[in-house]
Amino acid sequence: MEYSIGDFSKLTGLGIHTLRYYEHEDLITPERNSSNRRCYSDKDLTWIEFIKRLKDTGMSIKEIKHYAELRAAGDPTLFERMEMLVQHRQALNEQIAMLQEHKIKLDEKIEFYRNEIGRVNNGIIEN
Amino acid sequence: MEYSIGDFSKLTGLGIHTLRYYEHEDLITPERNSSNRRCYSDKDLTWIEFIKRLKDTGMSIKEIKHYAELRAAGDPTLFERMEMLVQHRQALNEQIAMLQEHKIKLDEKIEFYRNEIGRVNNGIIEN
DNA sequence: TCTTGACATAGAGTTTACTCTACATTGTAT
DNA sequence: ATACAATGTAGAGTAAACTCTATGTCAAGA
């Protein structure tokens, strides 16, 4: 299947402007038809979903761009790409661990609020 | 204990400029001494650590500012503040869940790379 | 044929969260 | 007393990641 930029935008949830911006940054390079319109493929779809994943896990556009360059260079860069992902996984693990700690503290804080509110309410009732 | 902005900066890991910026945004309002220098207290320290936690879990400065305003208004806003935190916890839980899914996909991708690299290497050896 | 809507490019503008600069003032060590 | 480091304010500058505007092209329906 091939998609116009409008269709691809709906498909991916990324704005048209964002897609063009990503292309400008060499993250993705869709084919063009005879009238110079962008033709996104299913391969592009898979690729952009992966880009979204990297972004959502905190990788910067600059880093993704680097990854995309390696990808464009083909097999010789397989190892380097894997290394990038392994490093990114490490960062992701740390991020998850940090958030889980924060979550515990937040739970505690909410519990504290629950008690405070109870205390204040009792005060009101007693007066 | 009281701290100068320099000491407080080292204590919190936030830059002096950032601390002043946070004050400008009304996130924190340290006392001033007779010569108009900022005097941060241990209460400020606890507060800024909480701010850092909110930030690290994805709350924007604008939202934190709102929370800070409620906090400054005292007991009458206890419930509203708790509600904010409960909502933020919800967002945090979703964020963690999303990252865990991404982690699984990333693991799979890395496994895929491991196989690809093995395949390519075998090709080289066989030639 | 004419108009409309999607698409094209180049470049400007926006938002967030800092980060830095310029310049004045003050506290401290020599 | 003097130099120097830390602090003060106001406002400009930066980086990232979009997001929008102006202007132009082109294919398809009324």
Folded structure, characterized:
2 copies of one chain form a homodimer. Chain A has 2 domains: 1-59, Multidrug-efflux Transporter Regulator, Chain: A, Domain 2, CATH 1.10.1660.10; 73-127. Helices cover 73% and strands 6% of the residues of chain A. Chain A has helices at residues 5-12, 16-24, 42-56, 61-72, 78-126, and strands at residues 2-3, 31-32, 38-41. In chain A, strands 1-3-2 form a 3-stranded antiparallel beta sheet. The radius of gyration of chain A is 23 Å and the shape is elongated. The N and C termini of chain A lie far apart (72 Å). Chain A binds a DNA duplex (30 and 30 nucleotides) through residues 4-6, 15-18, 20-21, 25, 35-38, 60-62.
Fold topology:
The structure is a homodimer of 127-residue chains.
Chain A: E1 2-3, H1 5-12, H2 16-24, E2 31-32, E3 38-41, H3 42-56, H4 61-72, H5 78-126
The first copy, chain A, binds a DNA duplex (30 and 30 nucleotides) through residues 4-6, 15-18, 20-21, 25, 35-38, 60-62.
Number of structural units classed as domains of chain A: 2
How many strands, which pairing sense, and closed or not: the largest β-sheet of chain A? 3 strands, antiparallel
Strand content of chain A: 5-15%
Oligomeric form: homodimer
DSSP strand tally of chain A? 3
Treating each run of at least 4 consecutive H or I residues as one helix, how many helices of chain A?
Answer: 5
Radius of gyration of CA atoms of chain A, rounded to a whole number = 23 Å
Strand order within the widest beta sheet of chain A: 1-3-2
The CATH topology of the largest domain in chain A is Multidrug-efflux Transporter Regulator, Chain: A, Domain 2
SS-based structural class of chain A? mainly alpha
